[in-house]
Amino acid sequence: MVADVSRRSLQRYLGSLLFASLTFCAAAQPDDKDPKNATEWFQRAEDQMNLRMPGSTAFHMKVVFHALPGLVLDKQPSSQIISGDGVYEETWVAPKHWRREVTLGSYHAIEVQSETARKLQASSDYEPSRVLMLLEALLHPIPRNLSSPLLSDRHSKWKLENGAVRDVSFVKISRTSGPSDMQHAYLFLSKGFLVESVEAGIVTRWQDQIIFAGRVVPRHFGVQGGTRDLLTADVTVETAGTVDPAAFELPGELAEPGMTLHPMHSYDANISLPNRTYNIGGGLCCFSGIVRQILDRHGAAREVEVIDSPNPDAAEPLLRLFRDDRFHPAKIDNSPCEIAVYMSWAPR
Length: 348
Known about the structure:
There is one protein chain. By secondary structure, this protein is of the alpha+beta class. The protein folds into two domains: 7-248, outer membrane lipoprotein receptor (LolB), chain A (Clam), CATH 2.50.20; 271-345, TolA/TonB C-terminal domain. The protein contains six helices and 18 strands. Strands 5-4-3-2-1-12-11-10-9-8-7-6 form a twelve-stranded antiparallel sheet, with helices on both faces. It has a three-stranded antiparallel sheet with strand order 13-16-17, with no helix packed on it. The protein is globular. The two termini are 12 Å apart. 36% of the residues are buried. Mean pLDDT is 87; it is low at 1-9 and 18-23.
């Protein structure tokens, strides 16, 4: 079972954006080149949305977000998703001169980067699942393995579809992967603006775009697991102005490569992943769907949840199995790191 961008939901979604989208497209005047393939669509969207390219305008961003608990099928406090209201702030001056700070519940972290050092100060060495979701949508709306020639899988066969809802033209780029046909889909307006993505059951929608320093900034985005809300966020951005140098200083030693707020992925260079093998019993044969878990820096499974499924109650024994998992941690540059893992099941 995978999430899909159905035509009915597409009509409702694009219809609600009709006036704003047309006004925005007319004002933005982006590059009108006609992409010839999926990679060119991804690269154009990356160029439009990336505020952090060399030479970009220094900015201060504030994101007020709400994290929702998802579906865990367990009443134990230790199994619950860390949720509630949160705040993310970023001051960016250059690729090696920035400060990020995030708070969600009792979790609080600050990461700074200077020309010579990167440091991290956090209340825990575990980043909550919803914080990782937030940072994915903010830092990499187009996953790096899709826009970067060095990371992309050029053998992937993407399907490009053109359509229109009322007067709004769109392009949908999609493919499936794995034995359960997990969907990967991206929805663009004709000028190249990304408005929706579907990856491993995670549906992210960007809305209310503005142009800041020549780049597209959505003022609101939401993350869903299938049709269940997992995260909502409101974004404000302004020029950084005069920045206090002390804001980029933290006490302590340099951060290890794996100690970072930046989400890690299997395609990152120099990353090694733990091997995962499961003895799945016959009681799980009826479950269909996608499960997400976070492997922390000690190799323990955390915040295990059903992302998308037509029969989520059948996942309960699978979730118990995952919560008891222990692995050698994933590593980047031989330093333990945290990573989100998705498992897709389909009845046999």
